[in-house]
Amino acid sequence: MxxxxxxxxxxxxxxVSVRELLDLINALEKQVVFGDxxxxxQLARIVMIKDESHYDKFDRAFAxxxxxxxxxxxxxxxxxxxxxxxxxxxxxxxxEKAKLETLGSLDELLDTLQQRLKEQEKRHQGGNKWxxxxxxxxxxxxGYNPEGVRIGQAGNRHNRAAKVWDKREFANLSDTxxxxxxxxxxxxxxxxKFARAGAQDQLDLEQTIKSTANNAGYLDIKMKAExxxxxxxxxxxxxxxxxxxxxxxxxxxxxxxxxxxKHLEYFYFHNCVYETVWQDNSxxxxxxxxxxxxxxxxxxxxKVIFVGDASMGPYEISYPGGSVEHWNEEAxxxxxxxxxxxxxxxxxxxxxxxxHWQYTxxxxxxxxxxxxxxxxMTIAGLESAIKSLR
Length: 390
Hints:
Distance between the termini: 40 Å
Number of strands: 15
Shape: flat
Largest sheet: 5 strands, parallel
Structural class: alpha/beta
Helix content: 25-40%
Oligomer: single chain
């Protein structure tokens, strides 16, 4: 049974190994859980999944194997809350319950539900067909049917629902979803590289034992410095204009980066980088930093991340004087080339959906200047960017 479960996880592209399967079998042999599918779900996820960004895939694989559900997403159509609001509850006699017909197999039940969701346009209550409340329909909440799909109701009142349809808790961790602050932190951690630096204020137990043994049993305490993330990151954020719709998303990325990286420097620009950037938007015209100064200050080992929609007139990149804010003596592409030539690892994160990139000439232009290291701001996109920076 567990071997088939193992291959189901692999089918959903989860990187589970035989070692993890053996650990799960060993836990079951020791009766860590017994006779409870919910407890088994928790145990299997703890043992088999090491990266929380894969929780959603695990949920779908688990449902596929243990409940016969494969690639069905009934929530392509959002069910309005008022369709499921409890206003009356129908109580049936034993004779009335016995008269109700079932829809047969689980597959037939799910097929029927999908068809009803396509056809239904409004709330229903007390009926026997549509998704609703307080009736005898197989679909909905607070009613009765000997075999049904419960939707939106807390608790299982009659213990008869064939499937409890709730949105997956970790669905937001799908590779194609936009990033949230927690997802960003998970992805950014892949860039970390630890090193010991600073005062030696932590006990080095292993070396203390070794040194004491070599010292004929006389205690010889050894200390070591604390481990810190040694990766150094330089970020450039496009602000204003077409970037306004993405403010919340970019703020989350900035917050996640500040949490993950001790050595983080950041600057702002508008549309394209020119001869100067700034760190305080309220003083952007009076307190600027020259890009030449950044090149002299920060070493080649800094990981550089540009964040912007790259959406502008192509002339803003390719011509002197192309900036919409000031007269730039040299074209934006000149400055971008200087930065990408100086730093060894550079990536560009674009909040615009990747499917729309082809419709904006400047996006393709910037992508070429970045040697194709432009990535969408999704989990998969950020992970690819981190991989390129490493």
